Amino acid sequence: MMALLNQVGLLVLTLVVFWASFWLYRRYNSRPTIHSLLHPLVTAPALIGCLLLLVDIDYSLYRHANSPFFFLLGTATVALAIPLHQQFHHIRSLAKPLLITLLFGASFAVISAVSIAWLLGASVETLISLSPKSVTTPIALGITEKIGGLPGLTAGVVVFTGVVGAICGPWIFRWLNITDDRIAGFVMGISAHGLGTARAFEISPRCGAFSSLGLGLTGTLTVFLLPWIVIACSN
Question: Tens of pLDDT along 191-223?
């Protein structure tokens, strides 16, 4: 009974901290720079991490208590098909440029991460774990387990990539004077997967739909090609 209460308490802790982080995020909506830095996906994990350290709660216990959210993560990814279907008439007319962008963006994401890590002397296992960094978490973990990587490292890198993309993406678009929501959304989906897509929906429904498309196509392309590339390189 006590164990159940502890699990419920940790689940409630996540909800309360996320609600507080979201309130803080909305509080500074009129100040773009601070608004981006206070994104709930940045502040909530930091607050929860500090609380776990202060109260000396083992992370594996916290993860087990919040397992319903891990299940919903995959469900939420599938649900992105709804806004994607609503924007399908726009997507169909842009098939060729979207495909070119996908091939370049998804390839560059893998090559850049692995190349930098290799130059810094990372092990083969680390290189494999970094390769699916721009794929949404459920897919990235599945790929890593199949090709012999470290799921823990992959999860951390995937989340870090998404947070950086969600924060810096809108800044970069403004700096480059990119105002087309379709371009911004598709690039966010390729480079920052689910977290970038959540940020894209805050920009506009169309931006979120194109980000969903980028997320899904990048995941599909990586699932089909990355294992074969790893096998070819290992031989």
Answer: 888 888 888 888 888 888 888 888 888 888 887
Q: Which two tokens stand for residue 59?
A: 């992370």
- Decide if 185 contacts 209 (C-beta within 8 A): yes
Rounded distance, CA 109 to CA 231, Å? Answer: 19
Region of poorest pLDDT, from 88-97, 98-107, 136-145: 88-97
CB atoms within 10 A of CB 141: 19
Check if the beta carbon of residue 192 is closer than 8 Å to that of residue 176. Answer: no
DSSP letter (8 states) at residue 1: -
Q: Do 173 and 184 touch, CB atoms closer than 8 A? A: yes
Domain ranges within the chain, ordered by starting residue: 1-65, 78-234
A 10 A CB-CB count for 89 gives 8
